[in-house]
Amino acid sequence: MSTLKMSSEYERIVIGGGAAGALVALHYLSSCSAACHEPRIAVVEPRASLAQGAAYSTDREEHRLNVPAGRMSAFADRPHDFVDYLIANPDPALADLRGHDLDHAYAPRRAYGAYLLARLREQPLFAALQHVRDEAVALGRSDDGFVVTLLDGTSLRAAQVVLAIGNAPRALPIDAGELPVVESWDYPQLDRMSPDARITVIGSGLSMVDSVMTRLRAGHRGPITVLSRHGLLPLPHAAEHLPSPLPSAAENLPSTVLGLWRTLRRRALQGIAQGEPWQWTFERLRPYGQQLWQSLSAGEQSRFLRHAVRYWDIHRHRIAPEIAAELQAMMQAGQLHVLAGRLLPSTGTDAATLRFRARDGAEQNVPTDLVINATGVETRFERPSSPLLASLLANGLAVPGPHGLGILTDGLGRALDAQGAPLAGLQVLGSSRIGTLWETIAMPELRVQARDCGQIEAAARTGCG
Questions:
Q1: pLDDT value of position 270
Q2: At a CB cut-off of 8 Å and minimum separation 6, what does 327 contact?
Q3: Which residue of 50, 154, 193, 312 lies most exposed, with the fewest beta carbons within 10 A?
Q4: What DSSP character marks residue 304?
Q5: How far apart are CA 331 and CA 328, in angstroms?
Q6: What sign for the dihedral angle of Cα 14, 19, 22, 24?
Q7: Closest CA to 72 of 30, 23, 28
């Protein structure tokens, strides 16, 4: 694999070389038969290594997968593949685990990034993959495909382009005034914080968990306040794992948010009465997330986003039990405080205070030395988080998805242009399809999208398919 821009003409270009982009390249290369001519494929990614996006570039033991290793294979038809990799390439954090125990382990995310890169490098046609270390800032049409403009001004051309752009952090909802702000994924900056600093984390989801665990491992002594609109933390996975296979659980479900929530609650209580953890109810629904989302009318989807999404998230996107236990211990010790409310603009009278309005309407002040932005990822396409997305909007190559979430795509993952027509050769996968699919960033969905994308691309090549 070359990291030099040795060519400007490709059959296909993958924009983004994190987990999503690495999966596309992996499945594309593996789908080509030995009879194919050597592909001309480029992955545009500014990082030095592929498969090391925001989630998997961390080398820290405390940053764990939120799904057991046994369900994280990059291949739907080889469900044990990631565990096989861990057996052959042990991670020190899992040194005490063997065999079946690894299936249920929450491996460090560093191990998963290494796994994806290893599987990519094993492909017979890997040498044909060109890693272009730059940032794509614009995308336009050409007579025979697309033109990708890079930050350094170089233009690359390809018949097909795959948008695997991953996740961009969401901006804070208000100006923090004079308080220093650190992004939750900026681990070097988190390391440089004073151990006695009074920290306020804005957001209470998975990004918050990472940043708090980073400070805990660094021996942080000062108080940490978590502030979010609902004050709800991700819930833990069950200690007991649901036996396989998963029984069908999506039949005869209501097509309203209220009806669906009542049904899930009833099923969870029935399970608890039979000695099952409530988490198993959500596990049984896990394969049907896209089906459930698309069964809701536009009005019900909007109602879900207004009233239920945070409650769904904490039940659906759970964390390792051992991580949840550490957070609970911090709260019991009085070091970690969780508040529910809305941030208020700074008055400028006290540079070391954040103001917020609690859910009961009372205004409160939080003494703070610095702020961690853990508000999550930006999902609204009409707020482009990069020059590339702004270019897609301006050029009419893509439009926002339902409810302004992500990019509008058809059932094959092709972007729809401003006239609603699918753009042959412009594929989208991952978080950018959230408005259409909702469930689109976890590995079971991502690996299928990457496989299908690779097959669609390979089928377009003479002698491949």
A1: 94
A2: 209, 212, 233, 336
A3: 154
A4: I
A5: 5
A6: negative
A7: 23
Rounded-to-integer distance, Cα 222 and Cα 367, Å: 12
Q: Give the C-alpha separation, 449 to 195, whole Å.
A: 43
Question: Comparing 269 with 455, which gets the higher pLDDT?
Answer: 269
pLDDT in tens, 358-373: 988 899 899 999 999 9
pTM over 0.70: yes
> Cα Rg for the chain, rounded, in angstroms?
23
Judge contact between 39 and 128, C-beta under 8 A: yes
Round to whole Å and give the CA distance between 125 and 61. 33
pLDDT of residue 463: 40
- Band (248; pLDDT cuts 50, 70, 90): low
Nearest to 301 by CA among 441, 436, 449: 436
Whether residue 33 has pLDDT greater than 50: yes
**Pairing assessment for the beta strands 363-367 and 353-358 based on DSSP bridges:** antiparallel
- Give the span between the Cα atoms of 373 and 208, in whole angstroms: 8
- Find the distance separating the first CA and the last CA of the chain, reported in whole Å: 23
pLDDT > 70: what percent of the chain?
Answer: 91
d(CA 365, CA 358): 10
The set of residues, in sequence order, having a beta carbon less than 8 Å from that of 390 and lying 6+ positions away, is: 384
Token pair of 372, please? 């961690």
User: Alpha-carbon distance 407 to 288, whole Å?
Assistant: 21
Residue 372: Cβ within 10 Å count: 28
